[in-house]
Amino acid sequence: MDRTDRAILQALAENARISNAELAERVHLTPTPCLRRLRRLEDSGIIQGYTVRLDHAALGLGISALIFVQLERNSLDNANRFEAAVRELPEVTECSVLTGGHDYLLRVTVQDLEHYERFVKESLASIPQVANIDSRIVLKQVLSRSLVSLPDRAR
C-alpha cells in the first residue's frame, strides 16, 4: 500500500459516495487506474464495505449505552453461544471481545430508558452464558471516525 492507496482510503472515509471520477481527480490519477486500485483494495479486504451514518436521535433512538459483559465461564463453547445470541439482538450495534475483568463490550442503541431496561432484563440477561452486566449510558458522543491514522507501511 502506497501513498496513493492511503489517499484513496482517506477520501472514501470522508465521503464513500464520491464518484470514481472525483476520487481519481482528488488522488491525482486518471479514472481507470483509480478504479483498478479501488478494486484491489476491496479484493484484498482492506475495504470491507461501504456504510451510511445515521442520526440516531432523528430516528427516535435516544439512548446509546456501553455494556460490559462477563461470561459465566470463559470457554470457547460459551463464547460461541453468547456471540450467536448477541447477533440476534437488533439493539446491539457493536460487540467486541475484551481482555481484563470483562469478556465483551457491547454498544446498544434503543428508543428510551424504558426500552433499555427491557432490553437488559428480557434480552441480554436471559442469555444463559451471561454472569455479570455492567453498563454506562452515553451522554454525548464527541467523536466518531471511520479512518484511523494509517501507518506508512500498512500490510
Task: Give an account of the 3D structure.
- The structure is a single chain.
- With 155 residues, this protein is of the alpha+beta class.
- Helix content is 36%, strand content 19%.
- It has five helices and four strands; from the N terminus they run H-H-H-E-H-E-E-H-E.
- The chain has helices at 3-14, 20-26, 31-43, 76-87, 113-124; strands at 63-71, 92-97, 104-110, 130-137.
- It has a four-stranded antiparallel beta sheet with strand order 2-3-1-4.
- A hairpin with a 6-residue loop joins strand 2 (92-97) and strand 3.
- The longest helix is centred in the first third of the chain and has 13 residues, at 31-43.
- The model has no long low-confidence stretch (mean pLDDT 93).
Overall geometry comes to elongated
Counted by DSSP, the helix tally is 5
Write the H/E string, N to C: HHHEHEEHE
Instruction: Report the count of strand segments.
Output: 4
Structural class: alpha+beta
Strand order of the largest sheet: 2-3-1-4
Taking the alpha carbons of the first and last residues, their distance comes to 7 Å
Report the average pLDDT across residues. Answer: 93
Helical content (DSSP H or I, runs of 4+) = 25-40%
* Main β-sheet description: 4 strands, antiparallel
Uncertain segments: none
Beta-sheet strand percentage? Answer: 15-25%
Q: How would you sum up this structure in a few lines?
A:
The protein has helices spanning 3-14, 20-26, 31-43, 76-87, 113-124, and strands at residues 63-71, 92-97, 104-110, 130-137. The chain is α+β, with helices and mostly antiparallel strands.
